[in-house]
TrEMBL record:
This is NAD(P)/FAD-dependent oxidoreductase. SUPFAM superfamilies: FAD/NAD(P)-binding domain. InterPro entries: FAD-bind_Monooxygenase_sf, FAD/NAD-bd_sf. It comes from Gordonia aquimaris. Signal peptide: none annotated.
Length: 497
């Protein structure tokens, strides 16, 4: 393809995953004049997390205006916070609008990546198919894509129906069924009100109560939508208002500060207003700092817990047995169905795909104590390989898409450099990466995530490889100021011949 570097490869760029990050990277590549790329998607449909998490009640707890690409605002959002179906439809529209279908290869499960130092290319292994060779690989497979089941003894002995929040069985009729829900995180608080509404007899097993803030969801009227459609400035204005509103929350939700108490006070007032029974209020009062685990944004969870067909159980589950769940004292509750809203496999290795870089080094080994990268998107020794949602790029207060877009822009700049300078190799310097991580880990010490609770943000050893300790605006600035000349080693094709 004219304009692309001289690449002895099947394609210039391989993008792994057709969710928000993969599709966003593809659109940005097209907009920058790169047409030679493929998107490898393990499923038969695009959408990533919004395809997989289609449980009843699945919706975004970040406002729609912030949960869409900044370069493609959607005037048609029906609610302040959109449901998963509407978000999935938005992704489909993006694919159609940008003609991305011709780039996507469905049912392509990537099983490994290996760098060929001489050629300066990545061999991308794919289950049951021929490998693809590419100059650059972009990991856009999402950090939360593999359902996680708890290591409760006897989990496989249960003979009733079971499902995970991220692998919902829509054929199951919950009406009048005895259902046990394990977990009370961001997914569970969306599922439970729907199951209660469906007439199931719901038992909620809570290990740790979370901080709950009201989610003020409103339908967006037809006239407001027409206004947004007609005057794009209003969409950007709404986006900016939400963005800076969320940035202000970081002062308490990210930094362990007096403002954390303000969030806790608001959440406690919400609890008092919504829950009458003192025993239940005590059970629902968290014993850790707000923000340490993800804040739960919901207005219908507490009412659902108090419905006649819902019971909150706070004793620890000792084991799962053939018919249900048992406590240490031998109390047994029987169920027709168990719902695991127990989160995801978050491997310390940061990505489930085995990756071999320069000199045969193995990323999983290097990340065995926790993942790290240079400014979250590149790792020394793994040239021409980039991460979206990479190490320490998680927000505790703002839209993940804002962070993802900032990474994508840096990635597209890197790919442009390789093309324009005909490089075989662009590899970040180890000292630059080390200096960045020392600073990140130092800043993490003062965050709510390191204030002493257990969450998927930390490894078992307490290492935080997931969250970015700062404002989203700081993250955007650090991605815009990546110095490819100072911090990266570049090898030109002419030099390597
Ligand atoms: O998973 P989680 P999630 N016995 O890991 C409990 C994103 N998200 O799917 O707190 C009993 O948060 C566990 O208890 P504890 C978002 O980034 C976004 O809900 O560890 N309970 C907890 O209650 C979020 O952070 C949206 O004590 C056990 C629950 O299971 C991430 O996905 C919506 C247990 C797991 O909570 C994950 O959220 C939904 C055991 N052995 C999710 N093991 C948006 O709207 C685990 N638990 C954008």
């Amino acid at each position: 393809m004219s304009g692309e570097a001289t690449v002895v490869a099947d394609t210039t760029t391989v993008i792994i995953g057709a969710g928000f990050a993969g599709i966003g990277t593809a659109i940005r590549l097209l907009q920058s004049g790169h047409d030679d790329f493929v998107i490898l998607e393990r499923d038969v449909r695009p959408g990533g997390t919004w395809r997989d998490n289609d449980y009843p009640g699945a919706a975004c707890d970040i406002p729609s205006r912030l949960y869409s690409y900044s370069f493609a605002p959607n005037p048609d959002w029906s609610h302040t916070y959109s449901g998963s179906g509407e978000i999935l439809a938005y992704i489909d529209t993006m694919i159609a609008d940008h003609g991305l279908d011709r780039h996507i290869r469905y049912s392509h499960l990537v099983t490994g990546l290996e760098f060929d130092e001489t050629a300066g290319t990545w061999r991308v292994d794919i289950a049951d198919r021929k490998p693809i060779v590419a100059r650059t690989a972009v990991i856009a497979s999402g950090p939360l894509s593999t359902p996680g089941y708890p290591d409760i003894p006897g989990i496989d002995e249960f003979t009733g129906h079971r499902m995970h929040s991220a692998a919902w069985d829509h054929s199951y009729d919950f009406a009048d069924k005895k259902v046990g829900v394990i977990g009370t995180g961001a997914s569970a608080v969306q599922i439970i009100p729907e199951l209660v509404r469906d007439g199931a007899e719901v038992t909620v097993f809570q290990r740790t109560p979370g901080w709950v803030l009201p989610r003020l969801d409103r339908a967006i009227s037809g006239s407001a939508r027409r206004l947004y459609g007609a005057i794009p400035l209003t969409q950007n204005l709404a986006r900016q208002l939400w963005f800076w509103g969320h940035e202000s929350v970081a002062v308490g939700a990210v930094w362990n500060s007096p403002f954390t108490r303000v969030i806790e006070a608001v959440a406690k007032a919400n609890l008092r207003a919504q829950v009458r029974d003192p025993w239940m209020r005590r059970q629902l009062t968290p014993d850790f700092r707000a923000g340490c685990k993800r804040l739960l944004m919901t207005s219908d969870y507490y009412p659902a817990l108090q419905a006649d067909n819902c019971t909150l159980v706070t004793w620890p589950i000792a084991r799962i047995c053939e018919r249900g769940v048992r406590s240490v004292e031998g109390i047994e509750r029987r169920f027709d169905c168990l719902v695991f809203a127990t989160g995801f496999e978050v491997s310390k290795q940061g990505t489930p795909i085995p990756i071999r870089g320069r000199g045969g080094r193995v990323l999983a080994d290097e990340w065995s104590r926790g993942a790290y990268a240079y400014r979250s998107f590149a790792v020394s020794g793994y040239p021409n390989l980039y991460f979206t949602f990479g190490p320490n790029s998680g927000p505790g207060h703002n839209s993940a898409l804002v962070y993802m877009e900032a990474q994508i822009d840096a990635i597209v700049t890197a790919i442009g450099l390789v093309r324009d300078r005909d490089l075989t190799l662009l590899d970040v310097h180890q000292p630059a990466q080390d200096a960045y991580n020392r600073a990140i880990q130092k800043r993490l010490e003062h965050t709510t995530w390191n204030s002493g609770c257990r969450s998927w943000y930390l490894t078992d050893d307490g290492f935080n490889a997931t969250m970015y300790p700062g404002f989203a605006s700081q993250f955007i600035a650090q991605m815009r100021t990546v110095d490819f000349t100072r911090d990266f080693r570049a090898v030109a094709a002419a030099d390597s011949r």
